[in-house]
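Q: Could you write out the predicted structure for this multi-component system? I'm mainly interested in how the pieces pack against one another.
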Amino acid sequence: MKKFDKERVLLAVAGPVIALAVAFALSAIVLIASGKNPVEPFALMFEQAGFSDIQVLIINQASMYYIAALAVAIGFRMNLFNIGVDGQYQLAAMMAAIVGAHMNLPAALQIPLLLLTAVFTGAFWSGIAGVLKVTRGVSEVVATIMLNAIATSVIGYLWLPTVFGVKVGNNNTTGEMHSSGWVPGIDMGEAGEIYGLVILAVLLGIGYWVVLNRTRFGFDLRASGASESAAAASGVSPKRMVLTAMLLSGALAGLAGLPILMGDTHTYSLNFPTGIGFLGIGIALLGRNSPVGIAFAALLWAWLDKASPELDFHGYDKEIAVIMQGLIVLSVVVSYEAVREWGLRRQQRRVGAELAAGHVLGADNNTTKEVAGR
Amino acid sequence: MTAVELAGITKRFPGVVANHDIHLTVRKGTVHALVGENGAGKSTLMKILYGMQKPDEGTIAVHGEKVSFSSPADAIVRGIGMVHQHFMLADNLTVLENVVLGSEKLYGIGGRARRKIKELSDRYGLGVRPDVLVEELGVAARQRVEILKVLYRGATTLILDEPTAVLVPQEVDALFDNLRELKAEGLSVIFISHKLGEVLSVADEITVIRRGTTVGTAVPAETTSRQLAEMMVGSELPTPETAESTVTDRPVLTVDKLRLTTPGGKALLDDISFTIHAGEVLGIAGVEGNGQTELVDALIGLRHADSGVIRLADEEITAWPTRRRREEGIGYIPEDRHRHGLLLEAPLWENRILGHVTEKPNAKGVWLDPKAAQDDTRRIVQAYDVRTPGIDVTAASLSGGNQQKLIVGREMSHKPRFLIAAHPTRGVDVGAQAAIWDHIREARREGLAVLLISADLDELIGLSDTLRVIYDGKLVADADPAAITPEELGTAMTGAASGHLEHEETPADGGRGAEDEGR
């Protein structure tokens, strides 16, 4: 049995490694094509990863990527494509910021209140797409894309000074949150502060694994993703599962913006990071929807983000990092499918070979006779 | 004169059976049967001959000339055509349109094509009408359209993959008449089947394939079905007959006036009523597509009845969702195990959980219990003789028969009160077939009620205590399995007979005996 486990690890690692190698190679080709040194930018970026202040930035950024990618991944696990994580986390962060600016409870209540606000806002927003899919058959891809656009408009509306907005210079904000809703960071001295909610990201990753792999609900969800028809025949109600998964995905998405909101900015302004939901899609893909894989992928993405500005100081364009992210996503899609098929075939062949050799679990006389007869 | 010659064909292929050193010679103007158990490698071999797969070793010669196919188009150019088991016709087009589709260059799409179709149809006695919509045709007529499609493209060697699987006995005879016409005109036919009676009646020569390799050839005049069967399986053929009746008077499943309609209001099932008692196997005979799938769906809860009542013991379950039905003791061996019975890319032990995730040993409360599920999977693998190196391999890496044994083991492990067995031995080799029959019989003795749906009439007659015939969504006839022949059942399946079917002339046992001889 050990052999098959090793096999699984090999297969799990082969996909990302091939994808990354291909992406690095292609990026190097882009650099050569533009007449630049193909190696030095990478060397510079690797060097950046060694600095402790950059490391703190990477971890902080990765925590948000991680939560967003988990939200996408939970949809992927049952063949739902929640492309609306972007709208969900922005709206949720804004609602949390508004509640945080207008309510002032003791920290022990305020912080859970803000988390729940974000969770419910995100779930509400994705739930609209879920209800539409279940009742009217609207594709969740279309619905969530539309909801992203609507979320942007809703945010613009809430920013109006007559609603919840507070103008600070040219910037739209929601006003500063009461300090009871601030989550203290982990002080790293010179290097800066790691957001307190990085711990939340870790806990969410553990929870994601436990729910999916160790609960009945998780089994039903994975079964639905693997084969909708088999899941239905096994007793899963497909509609209820779609709705539940959509709500869970949105709930997770709602938390994605909170590490920076509650740990640093304390207000939802024009400077609030956007696009994390879309990056989360690529990260979830690269991480193969597994909590550990996504952690690595999120760190990689954050590293590309935070190490690339240095390139500008050395005559390179920092956009090389963005090109690289794009290439990674492309190669990931191709290499995973290839590795998956290869792995499946390889296993079928090995099972065939093992059976032919008589290695049957609980082999009895019957089996040996059959093999001898060939 | 040989039409096709395959020599030393070897195909290393994912799965348990690969082709190994296959030799097959088809003479011109003959029907050559290729027989073997399901999973012996017949379909793989034909895919190689039809250019869908490339052999790793060996040669193919057509009319004495060595060829190498890289696609079915190459094979068609060489005059090799294939009639697939599952028809590839567009329902909303006419026969003419279906035939010319993709070969518009041959005879155009108008009058010339129509004349050609007429000519072919007349010459080979196919009786194809070019301007009828395919959706209006029955299964047998569709099959003739498929044959004509192949002839239209200039095929001189036809491969027919299990052509009789979807036909009732009368239609089979008609098909065989068509095949005789074809060979009289000098065409060659490769006829794939695992039904020995048919093979003996239509073939000029027979090649037997077993575990991926050709084990011999035979001429029908000099061989018996028993000899063929022994070549095929290397052991005695099992029979599905059940010895003594175990039927009790305790109803387990009662269906009353069940009706199911399409959204458009067309009845898929109409006025279905029956009772299955503890220890009883109720067999449903019928040509596929007459409501069997819908009946199973309604019983397991994938579709809900528009009217009518379903009762399990004395509880009404009509409105219960699938999960509750399964928890309360309905076992389900689905017709299509890949779509409804397995997660192909999940390990065996997760497949053991599928369908019973809320039950012991798979779960404790809301938590899964992977350890217990794994242990129980090991038990099932041994008790049901699932051939696998371990329980962590994916379901996809097992052969069809072993997948089916796993499903049967899983369903039986939860001690069902009522078992839905839809084609329980379809695509399963003879050994596994016997084992599955044994398990069903065993459970029946202990009071299990079984609804058996099967296209294999011998299986139906052999296992069932009561037989009903389904036609166009209605139960039109019933029969005593001890007193009926497959032919008589086949007549009723076409809708030609109704009411209680009586066996004519010969007493019950004599009828069965004669039937066994003929097979």
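A: Regarding packing and overall arrangement: Chain A has two domains: 1-36+319-374, 61-315.
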